[in-house]
């Protein structure tokens, strides 16, 4: 009786292990297959054919609760004269085909400008997928952004002009810093009031070549670090900053925004009464302390694999104007005098 019981238990255990592990194995194989295809030189456009007068917008989407906001953001980008196309990279494989079909239709009909909006469903939720050098990207410049951040189009156009003058740099609006905790002797992820070394993918502009370097270059060390991103479900933006800093030995550039609304920021008030609390709470950054700890661990691990710290600090930010900042009374309000 004991022998049969052990045999049944072993068979049951193996069945459970196989059921749990096969989907992960399948996902890994699928990701590797996609990488082999997209990284093949024959699938990359001729650099001489890439447009330099416009950029491609890559919006990362995941949460179905944010779809209305995503549609609004995508439509705004589509209306900009500097945008060639908008690709919505949908990274939630569990979304139903019906929802995806409706989303694809809504996006296609909401193209207010000349830039088409396309939905690109991803086979996995890997954050690395937002940096794939897709053959459909026909511009030299790429804007990587999130589905819960609204930026006015004047700022987008200004950032693009700044990128044209600094095509090897990362350009962004939201910045953070690396630093070292001397007590614990470890790297940390933080915010400094007067310097920065990391641009976030809430709004990150770069040249297309960096997508290829991130996804296809770097050999086994980059493969190891991309795997860390998948395991942590975080830090793809930090790794891109490492890749670019290693290439250029310079820090990113921050541009000032006329209007940038981050609906996922935990500092948003709860009293809007229009469902925006849900938009905020599904964001990864809402769990602030744990979030910073995990990202500090990423910096430490990337430093270990690189063998040095490539991140470089930048200071100040680029602004579109330096108009008068004095306040004047207009009616019953105090406003900027030049407004």
From TrEMBL:
Gene3D superfamilies: Spore Coat Polysaccharide Biosynthesis Protein SpsA, Chain A (3.90.550.10)
GO CC terms, sorted: membrane
SUPFAM superfamilies in alphabetical order: Nucleotide-diphospho-sugar transferases (SSF53448)
Alphabetized UniProt keyword annotations: Disulfide bond, Signal, Transferase
MF terms (GO), sorted A to Z: glycosyltransferase activity
Phylogenetic lineage: Eukaryota, Viridiplantae, Streptophyta, Embryophyta, Tracheophyta
Domain Glycosyl transferase: start-end pairs: 55-320
Family: Belongs to the glycosyltransferase 64 family.
Keyword Membrane: no
Name this protein carries in UniProt: Glycosyl transferase 64 domain-containing protein
Signal peptide start and end residues: 1-19
